[in-house]
Write a structure and sequence with these properties.
heterodimer, A: alpha+beta, Phosphatase 2c, domain 1, five-stranded antiparallel β-sheet, 35% helix, B: 123 residues, five-stranded mixed β-sheet, 44% helix, HATPase_dom (chain A), phosphatase activity (chain A)
Chain lengths: 532, 123
């Protein structure tokens, strides 16, 4: 019988426990050793000195005093090896010995393979559980730091969308209330994924919050954040980040950029990138960040985004790319539906089987009304509104024939996010147009230099629109008697005089009030109601 | 904002009925365009006139006043007026003003033309 023996898996790891008290020797050799391929082909017991190979494995086995190798082969694959020393009798292994060992190998090999598979699978399950657990933690951290609400600024519309990849990617965004009614907007992306990225994101988030409250200038905020992050950043990690400060009253947007994807500014003349140079945060000490400024006019908007959109691939591995995103921005008439448009196009591009590669973050900021109207007239107009009303838009139109027509697209954009049923939305539009027409013709006497002011607001239950004229011709007429079609057809009433009647029947409430220097009509549409 | 003009075209489909296609805005500013179209449509003294609202962008109370004026004239001329191509919103306005009781509102041109002929014969 063999004097010494063991099953020696050449894969790394300790050999299986040998039967006591036989001594064991560990012989390790590389899976690429030519011996492995040779034994798989031989597939039967072979004397070590019959193997003529330039092989570290052969040399190691000889050095360990081995004499006979019994390959454990199943499905043409070498899954193990029985190496035996010289017989105790010091005679050669007989034909019978070899047959016995070959039988043993034939039976043992599949069992060894099964054991290996079970062990691999157990390891895989464990590692999957660990990854899932890690992802869960990363997601929790991430969500903890995303803003719970959007800033509400009269005359502005802000929207955000965050969609984590399965392996959470380290995207973040934030809105900060700053002194003087200014609002800070942060969008960033940490290199790396999972828990490490989430932790760096949390640190960056806290640093930016602390610095932004202290320093208003975006370039200065990023400079300080970089100085603090360089100290703490793990190797090979950094953060791209764009920080912008909006003054809602003037529309001034100041921004600085630490290597983040450039935001797009949509204007009537076309789309431009908002460029400012600066290195990502946490890479190098003593970095300066260029600060730029732009003024957002009514009707203009900005899209902030992370690379998860432009770096998404279609099934043919083509990237979505910046030009496609820019085109979508250019094709938008307002930012209110831009996020939906981008997501719809992205879904069509990537196809249904896409596994999202990276986090996707989109933040839109758009100016819906002139600050002049908001600033000067907002408080007066808002005085009549319930305190919980949110102003969706405020604007003026000139008092010239047909001026009410200009109200319609602005009203449509303002109420669009409310998702009113089409018939209700159209009813409101016609009622507002009628009120505006009255204000232009009667209140302001068709004098183009006199503006008609409109404020569109919403509560949870209703949409409210106020239309204010200067009442230079006294209050708008309450209209003639109730219009009666039969009387009109018979010539007993003027064919005209439908305005007030339409207004009263298309919305749920019409109120009027007079104040110094103005007359206001307020139209109320209940959001769950039906037009009477 | 410039006032969007009303564009009209008149089709004399047969001896009995004419179609007025309305494109753009029907407001008080459309008076000349609409009344010219009505005169042109009435040239051969048809028994009915169908108004095509498929390309209507906007109609306000001034436009409704104009329609009533047109109805008064059509009534004097013993013409039946029908309409088709109205959106849900303007159909609602026709109901509110009861114009739908005087004008037959139809889903498409064929029905509107048939009704214009029929209405004229009954009268």
């Amino acid at each position: 019988m063999p004097r010494r023996g063991w099953v020696s898996p050449w894969r790394s790891g300790p050999p299986a426990s040998p039967p006591d008290p036989l001594p064991t020797t560990t012989v390790a050799f590389d899976p690429d050793d030519p011996l492995v391929e040779h034994l798989a082909q031989v597939a039967e017991p072979i004397a070590l000195d019959r193997i003529d190979l330039d092989s570290p494995g052969v040399r190691a086995l000889k050095a360990a005093g081995m004499a006979l190798l019994v390959p454990l082969v199943t499905s043409g694959e070498l899954v193990g090896l029985l190496a035996l020393g010289p017989r105790r009798s010091e005679r050669e292994y007989s034909t019978n010995d070899r047959r016995l060992l070959q039988d043993l190998a034939t039976h043992a090999a599949p069992a060894v393979r099964v054991a290996q598979l079970v062990r691999e699978q157990e390891a895989e399950v464990l590692s999957r559980q660990r990854i899932e657990q890690e992802l869960h933690v990363a997601r929790l951290i991430q969500q903890q730091f995303l803003p719970k609400s959007l800033p509400e600024m009269p005359g502005w519309h802000v929207a955000a969308h965050y969609q984590p990849a399965r392996e959470v990617g380290g995207d973040f965004y934030d809105f900060l209330q700053l002194p003087g009614g200014q609002v800070g907007i942060v969008i960033g992306d940490v290199t790396d994924k999972g828990v490490p990225a989430a932790l760096v994101m949390a640190t960056t988030h806290s640093i930016l919050r602390a610095e932004a409250a202290r320093l208003l200038a975006p370039g200065e905020v990023l400079r300080r954040a970089n100085a603090l992050l360089v100290e703490e950043m793990p190797a090979n990690m950094f953060v791209t980040c764009l920080y912008a400060v909006l003054d809602p009253a003037s529309g001034r947007l100041r921004y600085a950029n630490a290597g983040h994807d450039l935001p797009y500014l949509r204007r009537a003349e076309g789309v431009v990138e908002l460029r400012a140079t600066g290195m990502p945060l946490g890479l190098l000490p003593d970095m300066d960040y260029e600060e730029k400024e732009v003024r957002l006019e009514p009707g203009q908007g900005v899209l902030f985004h992370s690379d998860g959109v432009v770096e998404a691939h279609d099934p043919e591995r083509t990237m979505f790319g910046f030009p496609r995103l820019k085109e979508l921005v250019a094709g938008a008439t307002s930012e209110t539906d831009l996020i939906d448009r981008v997501l719809t196009h992205l879904a069509a591009f990537t196809g249904p089987d896409w596994e999202q590669e990276d986090d996707i973050t989109l933040v839109t900021l758009s100016r819906t009304a002139t600050a002049a109207v908001i600033g000067m007239d907002g408080p007066t107009d808002a005085a009549g509104l319930p305190p919980q009303a949110r102003v969706l838009a405020a604007f003026t139109v000139a008092s010239e024939p047909g001026g009410e027509r200009a109200v319609l697209p602005r009203l449509a954009a303002a109420v669009d996010p409310l998702g009113l049923p089409a018939l209700r939305r159209d009813a409101l539009a016609t009622a507002v147009a009628e009120a505006t027409m009255n204000a232009i013709e009667h209140g302001n006497g068709n004098r183009p230099e006199l503006p008609v002011r409109l404020v569109v607001a919403a509560t949870d239950d209703a949409v409210l629109v106020t239309v204010t004229d200067r009442a230079v011709h006294g209050p708008s007429p309450e209209g003639p008697e109730q219009p009666d079609l039969d009387a009109k057809l018979a010539g007993r009433q003027s064919p005209r005089g439908w305005g007030l009647y339409l207004m009263r029947n298309l919305v749920d409430e019409v109120r009027t009030r007079d104040q110094v220097g103005g007359h206001t009509v307020e139209l109320v549409l209940h959001r769950d109601g039906v037009a009477s | 904002m410039s006032v969007t003009q009303l564009e009209t075209s008149v089709r004399h489909t047969d001896r009995d009925v004419a179609v007025i296609d309305l494109k753009g805005d029907v407001t008080a500013a459309s008076e000349a365009a609409l009344m010219d179209a009505y005169r042109e449509a009435s040239r051969d003294e048809p028994r009915g006139i169908a108004l095509n609202f498929s390309d209507l962008d906007y109609m306000n109370s001034g436009g409704i006043g104009l329609l009533v004026t047109l109805l008064v004239r059509a009534k004097r001329a013993h013409q039946q007026v029908t309409a088709f191509g109205l959106s849900d919103h303007y159909r609602q306005i026709f109901e509110l003003t009861r114009i739908d009781e005087v004008i037959g509102v139809h889903p498409d041109e064929r029905h509107a033309l048939d009704a214009a002929r029929l209405g004229a014969r009954v009268r």
